[in-house]
Amino acid sequence: MLNAIPLIRLCQLTTTVAVSFAMLAAIKLDSAQAFSLTTFKISGNFAPVADNSSIGLPVSLANGSFNGTYTVDADQLPSSDFVNLTSWTINLVSNNTVLQTLSNTLAGNTAYIQENILAFTDAGLLTGNNQNMYSLELYFNRNFTGVGSTKNGIFLDNSDLGNVPTFGGNQIIFAKSQPVPEPQNFGGIGVVIAMGLWLKNKQKKLQK
Hints:
- Residues 1-25 form the signal peptide.
- This protein is α+β, with helices and mostly antiparallel strands.
- The chain has helices spanning 4-35, 57-60, 123-127, 186-207, and strands at residues 37-46, 65-73, 83-84, 87-94, 97-103, 110-114, 117-121, 134-139, 148-150, 153-157, 168-179.
- The protein folds into two domains: 4-33 and 184-207; 38-179, no CATH class.
């Protein structure tokens, strides 16, 4: 009976350690699943002159810029198939004023990565169901995974199909895409620290 109590304590400690490691494994698994969705920052500049015969928005965007973010399952990249973005917001800017925003808020809007192409397209461009008929296409190097820069791309405006007095295009003279830094998993770190302190105190008690 003299060894019974230490043995029980040892079993309790072993069980607790096993449960703790299982908790950490679950935290690690959840983090890995979350990190497959990666958010990228995108920015770039329009050419100083719009394409010939352009009117409206493409002309206003001359010497302008664009910026925003998009989210995609990076585990699927690179791919020769269409990999749809899960969310995106791209602001078209001139003289520090946002003239137009491309986003996933309107049902039917599409954005994808295929090979070296990153594209954002308003639903109206494909369906004619609204008057905003824009697309922004960027052409990166092969095997694009969301990180890179390019001097090749175009903004297209077909809004005249919806009886809006704007039409044409503007070339992209520079664009870059880079991942947004992921926040640290402070919850998981806190669990590890708490477990370490608890195990240390438990070991001291067993040694008495």
